[in-house]
Every structure is written in structure tokens, then in C-alpha cells.
Design goal:
With 465 residues, this protein is of the alpha+beta class. 34% of the residues lie in helices and 30% in strands. Strands 1-2-3-4-7-8-9-10-11-12-13-14-15 form a 13-stranded antiparallel sheet, with no helix packed on it. It has a two-stranded antiparallel sheet with strand order 5-6. Strand 7 and strand 8 form a beta hairpin. The chain is rod-shaped and about 160 Å long. The model has no long low-confidence stretch (mean pLDDT 90).
Length: 465
């Protein structure tokens, strides 16, 4: 069903149960935009003051639909997509860098290990060679000492033998020092080779992990966009509310209470990087780790309408209570108030009617939003947002020709939207229409700045049979 709460005319601040479809701007009528929702609805009429008590419950939460590509993609969606894409790109780039770093480190450590092993082997061989020389010189010294003893006993000159003995002794000292140095070098090179081999093993493990993470990221990146939104197929996201309407004299009044959710998600920037890393690595992520969330809200509403002279006047007021009552949580909507007031009057010519309404909102605790530009409510132009909407309709030739024009102007942000329409009914079943939309934005802070080039003209036909 589509249930409309509030006295406004196609503009409301109390109509919370149904979401809107903004993916196509060719059909701008209010009810055509509303998304039908499975509901349980009960109305009880009391026998005084024309009072009705209404209760509504929805087990599911259809949310606002937006174009995700093309000319009607909202700036918020483009910004969100850009943030997710850039963060994913940075994560993948980091994985590539990790692979390159590990690969470079592995190559360097492997080279050092091989070089150290060769140098250790060379030093060990040199130490062995010096050991062999020491053995040879020890044998020579023993022979020289025996020769000197024999020569001395025979009364022969031992000068030459003693000179050779001295040289052999000095050679042993030199070989012993060199052997010790080569053994020390061999030990150092062996240690260096062991260390480098361990580093190579670490780099190999890092490379394997980085390669695996990179492969998983490439496999999962295409499905990221399908898993960023919370799972709404749960009774957690049900909605309910009650409304009482009555008449006092010429005044129709109403009070309402709504318990449900915002229809557009809040963006938690602090969770974005962790979400991407977890999802790209595992292909899944828990609901609590998702960086988009639909904020809970309660809306307390007051509405009224009446006739004053020739004017049909109407008004709505809403107080939106969220889980961030003090405004300090940048990832949850602040409390806010919203209002609507207007009138319509039949003009004394051309069967014309003029309808003028003003609708606005005010974010409470806006000073807290100014502390963090990523706050879901942050807006550098301020925390009030008022729009005036005027609609003029006429008809000619017994309602066969019906011109209409709607003009909307954003007071704070300077948006101007003009929507003319001409309907022609050659018979009761066929309606031909020509319509269009002109969009003008004061600057880049305008609400419709992303759509500033989207003015259009369209023609259509509707046949009932």
C-alpha cells in the first residue's frame, strides 16, 4: 500500500512509511514516486469530532531508490562511489606495493645468502689450507731441530739451519693468524648466510601472502558494490506508527507518532577502509562492519488544515528524534525539526488554481556537525533548508486542455526548478502530454548542482482500456 500522512498537498514532512523512487525524473508526481510497501493498517472511527484512530505496521523497509549511473545519479551517490572506489584502489595499490617490496627483499636476501655461503666456503677452504701449512711447517721445524742437534754434536756450523728454523717458526705464527682470521670470517659469513636465508624465508612468506591477498582482492572487487548496504530483509527494520485525526469546527487536525528509519543511508567514513580490506580479503563482512547504515528515528507530528476566506490553508510540523540526541556522533543523524505550511486558492479566471507551499528543516546541534566535515549532517551553507513550491493549474475546452506549471525555489541554496506541463485529452481514455524541467543552480553548494545540466523536454501518451 501507499499510505499518506499529513495535510500537505504532494509535499509532506510526516509521511514516513513509503520510500521514494528517484531513479527516473520523467514522472515527478508524488504518488507515482512512492514505493508500495507491504503493510498492516487498521482504522477505527469514533462517534465524535469525526475522529479516526489509525495504526500502521510494516515488517519490511523499502528504502529510497537512486540512479547509480547516468545523468540522474545524485551527488551523494557519486561521492560515495568515488570514496569506495578510491579506497579500494589504494588498498589494491598497497597490495601491489607489498608484493613488489617482498619480491625485492626476497631477491636481495637470496643474493646475500648465496654470496655469504660462497664466501664462507672460500674462507673455510683457506683456513683448511693454512692448517695444512701449519702441519707442514711443524714437520719442517722438527726436522730442523734434529739437524741442528746433529750438527752441534758433530761440531758443525748451525747458522743456516737456525735461520731456516726461525723462518719456519715465523711462518707458523703467520699461518696460525691467517687460519684464525679465515675461521672467524667463515663463521661470520655462515651467520650472515643463515640470517639472509631466514630473511628470504620471511620475504617469501610475505610475497605469498601479498600475492594471495591481491588475487582475492581482484576476485572480490567486482562484488563490493553489491554488499555495502545493510541487509534489510529482517524484522529489525520494521516500522510502525499511530495517527489520530479529528475536526473542530472548520479545522481538521491530527497528531501522529512514527517509529522507524531514515530511508537514505548514513555514511560512516571511519569504517570504510576496514570494510574494504575485510571484504576484499574474505569476500564477506559482518553487518556491524558495513560503513553504510540506516538510522533509526521517531517522528512526533502535528498537522492541520482549514478554510480561511477563499484560502485552503494547511500545515505540518515534525520533530525527529534519533539515537544521537546530543549531536556528537558524526555517523548518525542529529535530531531535527521539519515543517510545511501553505495554501491554495481558486483564481477568478481560466478555471485556475494557485497552490503555494513552503517546506523546511532545521538540524539541531549543528555546531557539533561543524567539528567534522564528514558528519552525515554537515553542510557548510548552514543547517536550515527552506524551499518554496508554487503550482498553477488551468483548464480549457471542458478540461480537454490542461496547462500546468510548478516552480520550486531553494531559499538558502539558490536552486530553481521550473516544470511546465500541458495535457490534452481528445477523449476520456487517451491523454497526450508535453512536459519538461528547467534546472538552475546558484553555485556548487546548491542541492541540485549535480543535475544542473539535466533540463529536458518530454512527450508522452497514456491510454486506459
Amino acid at each position: 500500500m501507499k499510505v499518506v500522512w499529513g495535510k500537505g498537498d504532494k509535499l509532506h514532512v510526516l509521511d514516513n512509511f513509503n520510500a521514494d523512487d528517484y531513479s527516473d525524473f520523467i514522472i515527478p508526481d508524488y504518488l507515482d514516486r512512492r514505493i508500495s510497501t507491504p503493510m498492516i493498517r487498521a482504522v477505527y472511527s469514533l462517534p465524535f469530532a469525526n475522529m479516526n484512530i489509525e495504526g500502521v505496521y510494516t515488517p519490511l523497509l523499502p528504502v529510497d531508490r537512486f540512479a547509480t549511473d547516468g545523468r540522474w545519479t545524485p551527488a551523494q551517490v557519486s561521492a560515495l562511489t568515488g570514496a569506495a572506489t578510491s579506497s579500494a584502489a589504494l588498498y589494491v595499490k598497497k597490495l601491489v606495493t607489498d608484493c613488489e617490496t617482498a619480491r625485492t627483499g626476497l631477491a636481495a636476501a637470496t643474493t646475500i645468502a648465496k654470496s655469504s655461503q660462497l664466501q664462507a666456503a672460500a674462507a673455510s677452504a683457506a683456513a683448511t689450507e693454512y692448517g695444512n701449512k701449519i702441519t707442514e711447517y711443524t714437520s719442517v721445524i722438527a726436522q730442523l731441530k734434529a739437524g741442528i742437534a746433529a750438527a752441534t754434536a758433530a761440531g758443525q756450523d748451525t747458522t743456516e739451519l737456525e735461520s731456516q728454523l726461525q723462518q719456519a717458526t715465523m711462518a707458523i705464527v703467520h699461518c696460525t693468524a691467517e687460519k684464525t682470521a679465515q675461521e672467524k670470517a667463515a663463521a661470520e659469513y655462515t651467520s650472515a648466510a643463515t640470517t639472509a636465508a631466514a630473511q628470504a624465508a620471511e620475504y617469501q612468506a610475505k610475497l605469498t601472502a601479498a600475492d594471495t591477498a591481491y588475487t582475492l582482492a581482484l576476485n572480490n572487487v567486482t562484488s563490493v558494490a553489491d554488499n555495502i548496504y545493510p541487509d534489510l530483509w529482517t524484522l529489525k527494520y520494521s516500522q510502525f506508527g499511530t495517527r489520530a485525526t479529528w475536526t473542530l469546527g472548520q479545522v481538521d487536525m491530527g497528531l501522529s507518532y512514527y517509529y522507524g528509519w531514515y530511508k537514505q543511508p548514513s555514511f560512516n567514513a571511519s569504517k570504510l577502509n576496514n570494510f574494504l580490506e575485510t571484504y576484499l580479503a574474505n569476500g564477506e563482512v559482518s553487518e556491524s562492519d558495513k560503513f553504510l547504515a540506516y538510522d533509526r528515528k521517531q517522528t512526533f507530528g502535528l498537522e492541520m488544515s482549514s478554510i480561511i476566506w477563499h484560502f485552503n490553508v494547511r500545515g505540518e510540523f515534525a520533530y525527529n528524534l534519533t539515537d544521537d540526541t546530543d549531536g556528537t556522533d558524526p555517523w548518525v543523524h542529529n535530531n531535527s525539526i521539519a515543517w510545511l505550511g501553505g495554501f491554495d486558492i481558486d483564481l477568478p479566471f481560466w478555471n485556475a488554481n494557485l497552490n503555494v507551499q513552503e517546506t523546511g528543516s532545521f538540524i539541531l546541534n549543528g555546531d557539533e556537525c561543524d567539528k567534522n566535515t564528514m558528519d552525515v549532517d554537515y553542510n557548510k551553507t548552514g543547517y536550515t533548508n527552506n524551499k518554496i513550491v508554487a503550482n498553477v493549474t488551468t483548464s480549457f475546452l471542458n478540461d480537454k486542455v490542461a496547462p500546468e506549471v510548478t516552480v520550486m525555489y531553494g531559499i538558502e541554496r539558490g536552486d530553481l526548478v521550473v516544470m511546465p506541463k500541458l495535457a490534452f485529452k481528445p477523449d476520456q481514455n487517451l491523454t497526450l502530454t508535453a512536459s519538461g524541467m528547467y534546472i538552475h543552480c546558484a553555485d556548487e553548494d546548491s542541492d541540485f548542482y549535480a543535475w544542473r545540466k539535466n533540463s529536458f523536454v518530454s512527450i508522452g501518451a497514456n491510454y486506459q482500456f
